[in-house]
Amino acid sequence: MAGTSADGIDAACVRIDGSGKSMRVRFLWHRHRSFSASLRRQLLSAMAPAEIRTEQVARLHADLGDAFAQAAWEAIRAAGVRERPSLIGLAGQTVCHLPAVGRSAGACRGRTVTLQLGEPARVAARTGLPTVAEFRQSDVAVGGQGAPLVPWTDWVLFRRDSVSRAIQNIGGIGNVTWLSAGGAADEVIAFDTGPGNMIIDALVAHATGGRRRMDRDGRRAARGRVLHDVLAAWLQHEFFEMEPPKSTGREVFGQAFVAAQLKRLGAASSCPGDWIATATAFTARSIARACRRFLPGFGSGSAAVRPGQRRKYCRGKTRLRAPTELIVCGGGAHNPVLMAMLSAELPGVVVRPVAALGIPARAKEAVSFAMLAAARVDGVPANLPRATGAARPAVLGQIVHP
């Protein structure tokens, strides 16, 4: 898995027994491999919105394939497990994600376009293992946005009869999956909530002249103060007014967004710590507002929430049982300032990292794509049309043999 933060590759190994909703998953190990500085520069320069030659795209597709292959090979060797893995799921690196008009800010006309780079044949050849890739395209082909794709795996992993849960991933972009207590897969609500770490990371890079790429442990945000006028302006973004299904990416909350906001930030404060604190609050507030507006049981708690719209989306088969937990995964789970802000924004909701459930926060998305690969081999549909907007369930991915 390589996420929208574009910081590197996460490899996770799981043991899977059973199939479909009866799939039982045991986490075994996780390794992270950072992208080289040169590969990351190439990758960021290719991410939409960008102008790039076809030759550059072709070379980057091959280079990323080699990077994924090497990461998989190194992880398998380093783990020293007695039983060799039998299958690889490759999420690829998203460089362009444009949902169809009317579904998300930053949309394209006519139909959804999404592109993931990283040649799967190179992974299969290097490891000698069948590799499943092109997951998103299978959902797009039946009318979906190709995102979010992890809600089905969240339902398999975390559903319980006695508790309702919201699973919030905070990578470069944030996305949430809501699981009602004892609910079926077609009762799941899932969508992108907006920015995750992307704006925070970009402001850290700007403030340090590129010497740092993230706010480790939230230290810079902790030294700053939230610029409430800037935060209020950011929360007016059109993405937050759109109803699910919806997804977003760097096209909306990436470098172009940050570049356009530097003047506003500079006028409000000369302290970069204040900028980073504001971006951290933006992530926390946008997540909390999305939960209150679109998920049952979180309550309104904000004048910006329109209860009628929330009821419209939550009606139907969804059971209106109050979630008692917000489980956080992704790199954001390691930011104590962000986690504290989330807890403050959602009083009465238990906010805790996914590690408490036995999966490291950084490994969770990679675990999900391992599960999606297994579902492909089993012939089990693993998209949730309610989450992606697809016309029907679909078996996701294409198998590439070594």
Which descriptors apply to this entry?
single chain; 39% helix; Nucleotidyltransferase, domain 5; 2 domains; 402 residues; 17% strand; alpha/beta; 15 helices; five-stranded mixed beta sheet
Question: Brief overview, please?
Answer:
It is built from 15 helices and twelve strands.
Residues in β-strands, percent: 15-25%
Largest β sheet strand count, sense and barrel closure? 5 strands, mixed
What form results from the Cα inertia axes?
A: globular
Order of helices and strands: EEHHEEEHEHHEEEHHHHHHHEHEHHE
How far is the first residue's CA from the last residue's CA?
20 Å
CATH class of the largest domain: Alpha Beta
Outline the structure in words.
The chain has 402 residues and is of the alpha/beta class. It folds into two domains: 8-148 and 361-400, Nucleotidyltransferase, domain 5 (2-Layer Sandwich); 152-357, 2-Layer Sandwich (Nucleotidyltransferase, domain 5), CATH 3.30.420. The protein has 15 helices and twelve strands. The chain has helices spanning 37-46, 54-79, 120-127, 135-140, 151-158, 198-207, 219-223, 228-234, 250-253, 255-268, 272-294, 307-314, 336-345, 364-378, 385-388; strands spanning 8-17, 24-34, 88-89, 93-98, 113-117, 131-133, 165-170, 173-179, 189-195, 325-329, 350-353, 398-400. The strands form four sheets. It has a five-stranded mixed beta sheet, with helices on both faces. Strands 3-6-12 form a three-stranded mixed beta sheet. A hairpin with a 2-residue loop joins strand 7 and strand 8 (173-179). The protein is globular, with a radius of gyration of 20 Å. The relative contact order is 0.17.
